[in-house]
Amino acid sequence: MSLGQLTVVAFEVIRSGEDIDLGLIVKAVSSGTTVALSVIMGLPAVCLALWLAIRVARNSFTDYLGLRGTSWKNVLLGTVALVLLIGAWEVMAKVLGRQSTPSFMLEVVKSAQVDGTLWILVIALTAGAAITEELLARGFLYRGWSESFLRPIGAMVLSSLVWTAMHAQYYDPFLFTQVFTMGLLFGYLRYRSGSTWLTIYLHALNNLAATVQTLLILKGVISP
């Protein structure tokens, strides 16, 4: 996944035609267009790696990753639980006087607007990131660890920690804790339903809501 993402960053740096230095690399990494394309490029890389690992173990790709449907009851339960969790964190952010939307997200969306690639960023965050991260965390890692001495509870916690570490761009313990609790919720729903499609849907829903919230903040409709 990192290789796929770094390929895009390297391409953008070289394409700029400027002298390569740290400032240029930072600029490329924080570009909305670069972020969108790097997220999209990470998906096929992760799918290939998981397919190879699962094939070597002689398991079914779709079965091992939990790519199966679930009941409407689980969908409704997951949606309501996610809304309540997000709402609780929004209230906590207001009480503590913290910004609920990461500065990184604000800069990325603003950059994509300037570049005219906002639609690509929305697709990347709602579909690309959700599918890539869920296949890895709640699909592959949860499945393997849940069948080890860690059992399902340990797998929920450890896969959530890994998923939280993948959001290192936030640089904020408050936001890390928020991501971790969301990971625990997704892990529980993966355990309850046996479906990674459910967590992909919820992850996409959360990212879409976060993107819309960021756009409203940039337009001055709501406060950060």
From TrEMBL:
Example of a GO MF term: metallopeptidase activity
Family matches, as InterPro entries: Rce1/LyrA-like_dom
One Pfam match: Rce1-like
Chain ranges passing through the membrane: 32-54, 75-96, 116-137, 149-168, 174-191
Source taxon at top rank: Bacteria
Keywords, comma-separated and alphabetical: Hydrolase, Membrane, Metalloprotease, Protease, Transmembrane, Transmembrane helix
Keyword Transmembrane helix among record annotations: yes
All copies of domain CAAX prenyl protease 2/Lysostaphin resistance protein A-like, residue ranges: 117-208
Name of the protein in question: CPBP family intramembrane metalloprotease
Source species of the chain: Tardiphaga alba
